[in-house]
Amino acid sequence: MHSDPAEIKKSIRTYGIVGGLLLVFTAITVGVNQVHLAVPLAIMVALIIATMKGSMVAAIFMHLNHEKKWIYGALILTVVLFIAVLMLPMLSMSDTIGTPTGIARTVEH
Amino acid sequence: MDTTATGTAHGHTHAHGHEHAHEELGFWRKYVFSLDHKVIGIQYAVTGLLFLLFGFTLMMVMRFQLAYPGHPIPFIGSWFGPGNAPGGVLLPEFYNQLGAMHGTIMVFLGVVPLAVGGFGNFVMPLQIGAPDMAFPKLNMMSYWVYFCGGVTMLASFFVTGGAAQSGWTSYPPLADVAQPGQLGQTIWLIGMVFLITSSLLGSVNFIVTIVQLRAKGLSYMRLPFFVWAQLVTSFLLLLAFPPLEAAGILQLMDRVAGTSFFLPSGLVVSGKPLTVAGGGNPLLWQHLFWFLAHPEVYVLILPAMGIVAEIVANNTRKPLWGYKALVYAAIFLGFMSFIVWAHHMFMTGMGTSISAFFQTTTMIISIPSVIILTAMLLSLWGASIRFTTPMMFALAFLPMFGIGGLTGLPLGLAPSDIHLHDTYYVIGHFHYVVAPGTIFALFAGVYYWFPKATGRKMNDLLGKIHFWGSFIAINFVFMPMFIQGLGGMNRRMYDGGMQYAHNAGLLKWNLVIGVAAWALGIFQIPFIINFFTSMKWGALVDKNPWEATTLEWSAPSPPGHGNFLTEPVVYRGPYEYSVPGAATDFTPQFEPERA
Amino acid sequence: MEIPYTVEPRPDSGLANGKLGIWLFLASEVMLFGALFSSYILLRVGAVEWPHGELNVWLGAVNTVILICSSVTMVVAWAQLKMNNFAKGRGYLILTAVLALVFLVNKYFEYAAHFSRGEGPWHSTFLAIYFTLTGLHGLHIIGGIVVMAYLAGPGAKLWNRNPDQYANRVEYTGLYWHFVDLVWIFLFPLLYLL
């Protein structure tokens, strides 16, 4: 599938710009970290920035912004399951968060 | 053979008139390191069947111990050596090795390689009209990585301390600390990494093949249900195995690098506190393990359902009832299978809300299973059934899977699970689904597709003996387990539960189960004989001995390199049997409209 | 016998076989790293205390920059090939592999510093998950380097026989490589900063 060279040259420019943006965001990530926010806020900010960076890599470098249905479908399914494997184990132990081993203590005799 | 030779890819398989580089391959490239999906399928199938036999043999040995605790194993007792079975009596540690490896071998080395690697590889490309799988080299690699995994697992029996003995579920802290400094469990983990890798490579291949290599006219809703089942199964393997791979890596780290991913702080082992950092969580393993192992059971059942569907349609001479329902149910089943896993963990102290969530999803997942079973049962209504050997096994699958499924319901509800968890009831439940369930379907598949693979039919009388003997024996093996479980007999006890007073009235069933298991073993002999003798002396058949409608029956028996003599084209759905006004009672997918 | 749609995309799916194949593989990798991230969350949430500042943030940041640059060179390599510039394409591919090697060298120094203080994975749960996550990620980097070396070296012959197929292979390698970069984009803040 040969594309027009002029189109590709434009894409190369885009890749460079996105690369630059990613570096900027990296600097922001490190910079924000120096500010020492409260942990929950720090996590949120870090994740938001990382998600933005990740989305740029996925959309532009990995051409996901104009991919085909089967790829989108497989990825959506994967994201749903990714969230499940990320969240459900923790939710199943949510009432014992903060105890040393993360699992319910037994009764002391 | 490099299939990427020329750049003129127009998506047609050429008739074998102008082949350019098809030089005769030597023995090794033709039969051992073949790129042909049919050879690879047969390799998977034969290896899988051998592992099934081996795993079953382990159980036959264990069943002697359970039927006659303290008695030496007859004939072969001395083979295990004094370290495992002094005087021929199994040591508890050795019993546990046999138990853990029985489960591992049956699930990962036997059933899945046969159902997916064997049947999927051999039949699916033929059923979609493809010349081979999308990635033949990857296919070959998948088989050999599986083979290495199998050898690794078998090798673990021979290391100091023996094979893994913490159950096929390898729960920490036990699996982390068991056989300290010894290799058995560690080798199990390495073996699993091989097997998971093989599975992942295979599942990518299957999905790409089904999406990309369907013949002209073969839309998704004209696919045989067997292909749909393999497609959903491949997605399950693709997305569910990686968390177990992660867990395996973590447990390897715990055993080899001194980490404590799964070891809580303050753990005391054999009277001594463990000198590890602690802070780990045994439940983390359970979550990651069951995240795979629950979808895995649908990997065990879906291909079987696919096989049964094909054979039922063919031997009722009617279209399958509810094709669309079957397809949507299979897809829904696959998706739901990812979010029910913690029903294996109701007893771990989870909160009531999350427990309710998993109970709900578990109840919901029974719906598509019932839809599939019902559709297949309704397909029998008003049919003129041909009681061929494959059909006998396929018919038996239906009530056996029904029993297995129904007995799962009390396990999926936490209140009843409290009493039944870790008892023989669970063993009865899952064996009903896998043994008279899936394995019967796999036997059915062997009898059904043997003619396509070899050009000869298997002997029908031996087949019927195999069927009736197995069907009766297998029910006597597993039905008593429900009685034992309801009576509170725990699983995984090397002495059959003798040491617990409440088991006293249940012990007699161990003898029944044992005898039935050995009878079941004996009735596999006609199958083994039949399998090998029919290859040489079975009745010759041509393309379509079963008068079936799906694409594989348009290829020669056995198909040659590239499978089809002319490019296959599909004109209709997969189960056009007894079409009103047709000359015969079957109208194949691949036959053009008659004028 | 030829497998269809190896290079030309199939009309109804719009995909070549390899493109679908690599994305499916990446989907499984999302689940692999996802499970490890889930383990990280569980262990951290269940921990009484979680170390902070034990890792070299600047080295981690430098490595992040290196990987981002390597992602750019990777995709430019493919773009050059689509414009029929084999020499430039191969050059960018080699540059990507070199950047990846620098990443690994930095990681070696990081690991060595920890080990010299007796701080291996056994030392704490934090270090355990750090070494496991970055170790697995490192293995993926090595895998990528191997494939790039093959494509720049012995595999480059395919350009003469079938340039489209060669370009596709570079594209698929690129997709894998961007994924490896993506994982690091999340690993870096999770392990080094938070």
List keywords for this structure.
heterotrimer, B: 595 residues, mainly alpha, Cytochrome C Oxidase, Chain A, two-stranded antiparallel ribbon, 59% helix, 1% strand, globular, disordered N terminus, C: 194 residues, Four Helix Bundle (Hemerythrin (Met), subunit A), 6 helices, 77% helix
Structure report:
Chain A contains three helices and no strands. Chain A is mainly α and 109 residues long. Chain B has 595 residues and is mainly alpha-helical. In chain B, 59% of the residues lie in helices and 1% in strands. Chain B has helices at 27-32, 37-67, 92-127, 136-155, 174-177, 184-212, 225-256, 282-316, 323-336, 352-378, 389-412, 414-420, 424-454, 460-486, 508-522, 525-537; strands spanning 268-269, 272-273. Chain B has a two-stranded antiparallel sheet. Chain C is built from six helices and no strands. Chain C is mostly helical and 194 residues long. Classes of the chains: A mainly alpha (109), B mainly alpha (595), C mainly alpha (194). Chains in contact: A-B, A-C, B-C. At the A-C interface, α1, α2 and α3 of A face α1, α2 and α6 of C.
In short:
Chain B is mostly helical.
How are the SSEs ordered, and which strands pair?
The complex is a heterotrimer of chains A (109), B (595) and C (194).
Chain A: H1 5-34, H2 39-61, H3 69-92
Helix pairs in contact in A: 1-2
Chain B: H1 27-32, H2 37-67, H3 92-127, H4 136-155, H5 174-177, H6 184-212, H7 225-256, E1 268-269, E2 272-273, H8 282-316, H9 323-336, H10 352-378, H11 389-412, H12 414-420, H13 424-454, H14 460-486, H15 508-522, H16 525-537
Antiparallel strand pairs in B: 1-2
Helix pairs in contact in B: 2-3, 2-4, 2-15, 3-4, 3-6, 3-7, 3-8, 3-13, 4-6, 6-7, 7-8, 7-9, 8-11, 8-13, 9-10, 10-11, 11-13, 11-14, 13-14, 14-15, 14-16
Chain C: H1 17-45, H2 57-82, H3 86-116, H4 125-152, H5 158-161, H6 163-193
Helix pairs in contact in C: 1-4, 1-6, 2-3, 2-6, 3-4, 4-6
